[in-house]
Design brief:
Strand content: over 45%
Structural class: mainly beta
Shape: globular
Number of strands: 6
Radius of gyration: 12 Å
Order of helices and strands: EEEEEE
Helix content: under 10%
Distance between the termini: 20 Å
Number of domains: 1
Largest sheet: 6 strands, antiparallel, barrel
Length: 81
């Protein structure tokens, strides 16, 4: 196991854990929950059976980040920004 480059934190307080995955220009946005995040990536929990593409945009806390999936287990995804 490699050490993390950035410390991960869990959303709490005034920061909501709700986020949206922007899958494409014509595809509907997909709801998800941010389990934890860091400046370099995040752990997301998706609801539903649709598997997102390998690259997408994450809309979280008023910011939009380009992401790529680096791991997935069940309903959880690890993404890098």
């Amino acid at each position: 196991m490699y050490p993390r480059r950035f410390a991960r934190v869990r959303p709490r307080g005034l920061v909501s854990d709700a986020a949206k995955l922007i899958l494409g220009p014509k595809a509907p946005a997909m709801d998800c929950r941010v389990v934890d995040y860091s400046p370099g990536g995040a752990c997301l929990e998706i609801s539903g059976q649709i598997k997102p593409p390998n690259r997408f945009e994450l809309l979280f806390g008023g910011t939009r980040k380009r992401c790529r999936i680096v791991w997935s287990t069940g309903r959880r995804l690890g993404v890098a920004f």
